[in-house]
Design brief:
It contains one helix and eleven strands. The protein is mostly beta strands and 179 residues long.
Length: 179
């Protein structure tokens, strides 16, 4: 039980971030091998982009992995870039819970949709109702890039493709890989 609490507390502390220094050879939104239907060939643990979502106000998401672990969870990771000229506050991405006890907004409104299984998966919450996802106190400043993660319940093992949906953006199909 102590290990579970330590994990939960660690997983919720995603508010610390450092701006990207541009060390990647590919800008967000480029790269990743796709099959003929626009579905990523595989997830990448090394930061290679497997899918992108381009949103309003210059906010873009580059998904780098969607990994199923043996504990029954899927963790989606990637980067969020604000190419706009003002801070992005994530006010429409927070699934209606804006405050998070002073921790700021989050990516809590993301969902995974299993179209074949006809089921939607919401980001997991801890016992204080904080999402197991990245928090953005003060939003994401103009020109900043930040890592994000979001943890979901895992769909059945035979489900390997789901749609990632983010409020204010189109959905994108991502492939789940096993750890």
């Amino acid at each position: 039980m102590t290990a579970a609490m330590a994990f939960t507390l660690t997983a919720c502390g995603g508010g610390d971030r450092a701006p990207d220094t541009g060390s990647s050879s590919q800008p967000p939104g480029e790269g990743g091998d796709m099959d003929g239907e626009g579905v990523p060939d595989s997830a990448s643990e090394d930061g290679e982009v497997m899918a992108t979502l381009n949103g309003t106000n210059g906010v873009n998401i580059a998904v780098t992995s969607a990994i199923r672990d043996q504990g029954g969870f899927v963790t989606v990771k990637g980067k969020i870039e604000n190419t706009g000229d003002r801070a992005y506050l994530f006010d429409r991405w927070s699934a209606g819970d804006q405050d998070f006890s002073g921790k700021g907004a989050s990516v809590g409104g993301m969902t995974l949709v299993d179209k074949e299984g006809k089921k939607r998966y919401y980001i997991l919450r801890d016992t204080d109702n904080n999402c197991l996802c990245t928090m953005f106190p003060g939003g994401l400043g103009a020109g900043e890039i930040a890592d994000f993660f979001a943890q979901f319940p895992a769909p059945p093992a035979e489900t390997t493709e789901v749609d990632l949906q983010v409020p204010t953006m189109s959905s994108v199909t991502i492939r789940i890989t096993d750890k």
